[in-house]
Amino acid sequence: NLKENFDMSADDSTDMVKADIENILQEADVSPEEFNFEDIRVYGSYTKGRNKETSDLDFIVQYTGTMKEDAAFNLLHDEDLTIEDKNGRTVTIDINIFVCFFRSFIN
After folding, report:
1. The whole model's pTM is what?
2. Among the residues of the chain, which ranges form H helices?
């Protein structure tokens, strides 16, 4: 369904959003000790073919570091990331974030 709506694969979409997040972190001068990517995945209605006109594009981001989850959430949501679908509709990118202390939980 990502291919049908955005002409990109799940890997392409996660690469795009990861690059956007890395740019946000760099502009905010956030160090790898504060926020170090562990994983990013797209999920939700667009991956299951249940999206509606009001659906957003959901991503889950896992990181290690000293930055608190609420600070990371606020930093990333201040940017109001969006993507345009094939019909020219602006779709909000929703980033859900959590810090990992020991191991990957997304796998």
Report:
1. 0.89
2. 2-6, 10-27, 45-48, 69-77
